Amino acid sequence: TYALNSYMGSRDDIPPSNDARLWNFHKSADLACGDTSSLLLFVDTSPGNICHSAFVIRLGAGGQFYHLPSAEHDHGGVVSFTDTHVEYHRWVEPRTITESSPNWIPNHWTLWLPANRDLQWLQARASVLLPASP
Fold first, then answer.
1. Which of 61, 45, 31 is CA-nearest to residue 123?
2. pLDDT digits (tens, 9 = 90+) for 70-86
3. Are 55 and 12 in contact (CB under 8 A)?
4. How far is CA 106 from CA 31, 43, 51, 63, in A?
């Protein structure tokens, strides 16, 4: 179960959870503004947390998980990056692993895990700031 990073090819108005200050990549040339080896493309998603094809990563939301990564493979999952490399990532927070386990979709607006290192890892790889306007 994989989902595409919501900052990759999403319409600007869907999902509304994307931060308007960050790049919403629409074509491969857009990726030149970031480090392609560290921009997430696909995320192995918790099976009970799939509701649409985008993996929403809330930025600037104070610790809100919208979608949860899969922890089914020894507390981790596979992620791919826009430079085409793929890697296994093991989640480190017990709460991430616990919340990823149920076979149901939690309410996306109520899962708050401030200072969660796994969420911070995802956030650091979701997008880049848009260039400043002159």
1. 61
2. 999 999 999 999 999 99
3. no
4. 32, 18, 10, 15
